C-alpha cells in the first residue's frame, strides 16, 4: 500500500510541530509540506494534492472554512483549533475529526483510528453531499424580488457559488440564495446534483456531453454552457460513465 501524503496547516509553529511529532509513528503517512496561513494553504493543497490535511481555523489570509471553499483538490480534513464554537459547522461538511487544542497523543490516536476506519467512497466534500435521514424535496422556496418563489428542483440546471452566497440557475432565470453552496447541496439528491468544481454543482438531467481538451475535461449543458471539471471531482463524474 502506498503511503499517504499529509499537509500540516497552522499559523503557530508549535501547532505544526505537534502534529508532525504525533504523526511520526504512523509509517503509512508522510508530511509532504506545511503552511502558516490560508493563502499558502490553498496554493499548496492544489499543487501537492495531499491525501490528508490537518487544518487550523483562525489563520491570516483565509480561515480554515474559506480555504475549503477555494480549493480544487479535496483531501480528507482534520481540523485542529483552540476554539470549540466551530465544531458543529465543521462536522456539517463531513470532516474526519475536530481536534480541540490542547489535545493529547491519545486523542490524536483516536482521530487517526477514525480516519483509518473511514469507508472507501467518493469524496463527500467533492460531491457536496451530506448524510440525511429524510427524502429530498421536489420543490424549494427561493427569494426573488423581496418574495419567495416556489420552484421545482427539476428546473434547476446548475448552482454556482457567489462569494458566501449561491446563485441558482434555471433555463429562464437565476436566483440568489443567502446560503453557501455546501449548505444548499444538502437539500438536493446527490445522485442527480453533482459537484464538478468547488464552486459549481450541476443537474445531471441537463448534461449534454463531456469532452477532453489539452489534458482537461469539460462538461457541456443543454444550453451550450461549458464547465471545466476540477481534478478532484473527476472520480465523481467517472462513476456515472458506463
Automatic annotation (TrEMBL):
Domain Response regulatory: 5-116
Listed PROSITE patterns: HTH_LYTTR, RESPONSE_REGULATORY
Residues of the HTH LytTR-type domain: 140-242
GO molecular function: DNA binding; phosphorelay response regulator activity
Extent of the signal sequence: none
Keywords (A to Z) from UniProt: Phosphoprotein
Modified residues (4-aspartylphosphate): 56
InterPro entries named among the record's database cross-references: CheY-like_superfamily, LytR-like, LytTR_DNA-bd_dom, Sig_transdc_resp-reg_receiver
Origin: domain of life: Bacteria
Protein name: Response regulator receiver
Amino acid at each position: 500500500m502506498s503511503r499517504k501524503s499529509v499537509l500540516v496547516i497552522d499559523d503557530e509553529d508549535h501547532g505544526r510541530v505537534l502534529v508532525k511529532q504525533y504523526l511520526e509513528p504512523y509509517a503509512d503517512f508522510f508530511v509532504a509540506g506545511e503552511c502558516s496561513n490560508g493563502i499558502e494553504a490553498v496554493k499548496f493543497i492544489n499543487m501537492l494534492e495531499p491525501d490528508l490535511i490537518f487544518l487550523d481555523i483562525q489563520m491570516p489570509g483565509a480561515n480554515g472554512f474559506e480555504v475549503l471553499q477555494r480549493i480544487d483538490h479535496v483531501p480528507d480534513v482534520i481540523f485542529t483549533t483552540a476554539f470549540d464554537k466551530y465544531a458543529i459547522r465543521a462536522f456539517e461538511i463531513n470532516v474526519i475529526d475536530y481536534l480541540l487544542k490542547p489535545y493529547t497523543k491519545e486523542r490524536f490516536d483516536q482521530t487517526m483510528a477514525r480516519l483509518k476506519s473511514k469507508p472507501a467512497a467518493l469524496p463527500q466534500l467533492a460531491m457536496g453531499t451530506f448524510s440525511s435521514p429524510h427524502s429530498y424535496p421536489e420543490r424549494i422556496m427561493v427569494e426573488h424580488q423581496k418574495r419567495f418563489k416556489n420552484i421545482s428542483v427539476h428546473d434547476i440546471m446548475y448552482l454556482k457559488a457567489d462569494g458566501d452566497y449561491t446563485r441558482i440557475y434555471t433555463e429562464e432565470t437565476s436566483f440568489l440564495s443567502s446560503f453557501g453552496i455546501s449548505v444548499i447541496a444538502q437539500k438536493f439528491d446527490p445522485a442527480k446534483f453533482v459537484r464538478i468544481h468547488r464552486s459549481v454543482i450541476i443537474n445531471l438531467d441537463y448534461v449534454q456531453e463531456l469532452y477532453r481538451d489539452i489534458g482537461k475535461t469539460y462538461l457541456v449543458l443543454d444550453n451550450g454552457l461549458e464547465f471545466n471539471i476540477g481534478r478532484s471531482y473527476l472520480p465523481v463524474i467517472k462513476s456515472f460513465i458506463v
